[in-house]
Amino acid sequence: MSIIDDYVILWFGESCLKHYFSDFDVVDFDNVIDVKNLDFNNFKGYMRNYGKFIEIIENEIEKVDYLFTCYDTDLGFEVVRHLFSVSWDRVGIIEDGISNYYPHAMPKLCSKIIKSIINKFQKSFFLDVSKYNLGGNSKVGIVSTICPEHVYLHKNSKAKILNIRDAFIEIIDGYEGRVPDLYKSADVIFFLSAVLNYKRMTTRELVDYLKYVRSNDHISKYKNFVLKPHPREDLVRLRQIIIDYFGDDVKVAENVPIEIYIKSINPKCLAGMPTTAMLNHYIINPRDQTEYVIFFDKTGPYKKTQINVIKKVIRNNLYVYYYDK
Q1: N or C: which end of the chain has fewer CB within 10 A?
Q2: Over 60: is that where the pLDDT of 2 sits?
Q3: How many structural domains are present in the chain?
Q4: Phi then psi for 5, rounded to 5 degrees?
């Protein structure tokens, strides 16, 4: 499989793609169709704006040879696959980080079935109802990953593994000189999931959790503590909480991807909830002396599974703590 120039990126994110990659030339924005305003990230928005999406796609795309998606239940992906009759052996999964390495189902199977039936009656075709997603979907033809030795595939899968590690490193090598000063000076980079946006923690619970983290022996010995929020976190609210309760002792980074710097940052400690960035840092820098500290807070359906994946991949300097308050 060779690199091609004739491609289109369909962007469904909540913010425009330039918000995440404004300073980089990784993305050719001439090849991006931004449809975030169609609200395809929820079923009601999909139903309401289906016709508009079809009109955009038919005007912009003539045919599809290969169809890659971050997630095989994405509604925009389902429409394009149906509209252009893309066979499953030409469907590929884009590297999805930690989710590449264990079986999981999102949404749950019962929800998939209900939505599929509704879609058949209203839009004339069934949505896919595979029990598992990504490599767990046995029909998928290609799975891309930076860590082929650990990627999860269904036992009946015939998918080709596309090793993108070298290509990934080639890209991030080009941004070695662009690492933000906040990350350069960080002793600890702490990864926080979108606990406020998804209402997994109240303000009080978050403050108590961060105080617990900062009192840990692997963390407290360092001065420069940088909190890296999830891209979908409520950044305004998070920053106000940090200012109110921690002042200048905790610095909050932007909620844009850190992966582009992952080879160039060398903090004393990477810590937080189970996260792709932590896993990728070790995969790309296996001989680095960074400590990896996980604080398992038991929120989210797959945290324990994610920790087991990280334990399997990260063999050195890994510490796991259980926070149950």
Answers
A1: C
A2: no
A3: 2
A4: -95, -20
